[in-house]
Amino acid sequence: MIDGKMRSVESIVAELPPSSSAGAVVGAGGGGSWLYGWLVECHGLWHNVLMIVPSALFVVYLASQAKRSFSKVSNGRSHVVTALYAILWLVSFFNLAWSSLQAWECAPAKQFVWSVLSLFTTSGMLFLEVSLIAFLLRGNHASGREALTQTFLISTLAVGLDMFLKGIYLFGFGIQLFDVSTNGSQWALWVVHKLLLTGVYGLIFFMYRSRWRERLPARPAFQKYISIMFCLNATALLACALAAHGAGFGLWLYNITVICYHAMYLPLLYVTFLADFFQEDDLHLENVYYSEMKDAGFFDVDWE
């Protein structure tokens, strides 16, 4: 009799549509399971939090300063700063979206969309990097439309070539460059990529400490920026080389550099190149005068 009742229950359940049986049970916690998958799965909770929170806070900060910043940009005469500020806004939104959608990296159905989003996000950040490198290498008088045109021309060519090569890897050979969970042939490209950046930052880093330092802008903030980027790219180069040989530590170290880059690069860029421009005029001039006096050696005198 019990067996007969069990069979009747099973037959009733089997006849129900999916939405009325198992789907209804899962649906009660569907929102929670989606949130759990978004924050915890793929890379883990702390990885996602460390990516999302700084990116979101920086966009909120830009929005809070937008009115005053837009007024300064509109009344300013620096075409380089104006263009840099506009591109910073665009790249910040891309970076926030990329940081918030980390779960797509582990979803096979989202592989194509994830690759496209990653390509545009990393290319936008690389465009800023190359533009600032070209700006620094132009020397102490890098301003005006001519400087903007030449700087962005160099950046467009460099980033265009980078996107072309990455596109061949992604859509030509099917190599998932932005899926770091596999130790495949993508590491060869990343080693070359980080090697070039490390070499350029290293060159400028040693120029600041040589007799050619007069050819570069003398602001201490620029020197700190170059030092930080040189160390970050050198660490990423080591991580890529280790990961290419199958070392688990290399993969872990590379993930750390990715978090640091996407969470901190845009705020670092803003603090280094744009923050002084958006300060009040008197405070801005005071900082400029102090930097010039410090670079001239006025504060190196021994008064004892």
Automatic annotation (TrEMBL):
Gene: LOC107760265
Record-linked InterPro entries: TPRA1/CAND2/CAND8
Main location class: membrane
Subcellular location: Membrane
Record-given protein name: Protein CANDIDATE G-PROTEIN COUPLED RECEPTOR 2
Top-level taxon: Eukaryota
Organism, scientific name: Nicotiana tabacum (Common tobacco)
Record-linked PANTHER family: TRANSMEMBRANE PROTEIN ADIPOCYTE-ASSOCIATED 1, TRANSMEMBRANE PROTEIN ADIPOCYTE-ASSOCIATED 1 HOMOLOG
Membrane topology term: Multi-pass membrane protein
A GO BP annotation: G protein-coupled receptor signaling pathway
